[in-house]
Amino acid sequence: GQEPLAISYNIWGNPTNEAGKRKGAAAGSAAGGDWSSKGMVCLGELNMSISWSPTSIRKSEEGQLMIHVNFIKFYSMYVSDYYKINPWIDVFMSTPGPGDSRLWAQ
């Protein structure tokens, strides 16, 4: 089959190294901290593709979700020792809720 198109997404967060503090961004605590959206900067990029393969034509709501992560790149000016970081990705399922809201699966 044809490979789905890979798209790059920005990774947003608060810088915790000295370079980020000098730029006036709020640094989070070592445990992740209370980050405010004021100090958020683009820390890097995630390049991935997503595709859905339904079980059958009659059951298009059932199937297999495929997520292919091509790369995760951190910008060295905000993330020190970026080459030692072992990132992970959490995937959550949701369904449409009332209005424009989403109901997240537990």
Secondary structure: elements and pairs:
Elements: E1 7-13, H1 18-22, E2 41-54, E3 63-74, E4 94-96, E5 102-104
What do you see in this structure?
It contains one helix and five strands, in the order βαββββ. It is mostly beta strands and 106 residues long. A three-stranded antiparallel β-sheet has the order 1-2-3, with no helix packed on it. It has a two-stranded antiparallel ribbon with strand order 4-5.
Mean pLDDT, all residues: 78
Helix content: under 10%
Q: Give the CA-CA distance, first to last residue.
A: 33 Å
Strand content: 35-45%
Element-by-element helix/strand order: EHEEEE
Low-confidence stretches: 17-35
Rg from C-alpha positions? 18 Å
Strand sequence of the main sheet, in spatial order? 1-2-3
* Total beta strands: 5
- Quaternary state reads single chain
What's the story with the biggest beta sheet?
A: 3 strands, antiparallel
By helix and strand content, what is the structural category? mainly beta
Give the CA-based shape: extended
Number of helices: 1
